[in-house]
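Slide 14.
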Amino acid sequence: MRSRTLRTALLAGGAYDFVVGLAIVLALRFLSEILPIPFPTEPIYARLCGVLLLGLAGFYTTTALTLPNSLPSVIAALGIRTLGGLYLAATPMLHPEAPPFLAVFGAVDLLFACWLLYGLTVRRP
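Slide 15: predicted structure.
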């Protein structure tokens, strides 16, 4: 296990989720204008997703700051990133009405998952 790699991946992922979550909560209309994602008909649910992303950001940050004692939380973070990334990447393929841009968010989540997996599996020299 590479604690420094895991810490960096968790902090970067937490920062990413914090920025995206905050943008969804505070600037949803602006996001829908600059990204190829339509403004939702029920914005309260999109904003709830933003709040949940803020919670994930806190989870990832707390996990990073308590390494190496938080290995189960790292594994949970890896699962969340992997499942979320697969879901977002697959949604445009499974639901043609879904915005294709969601796959970009899925790819970012999968990259964070790979980074975490690398930190978990590669041994320190």
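Speaker note: Residues 45 and 51 are 10 Å apart (CA to CA).
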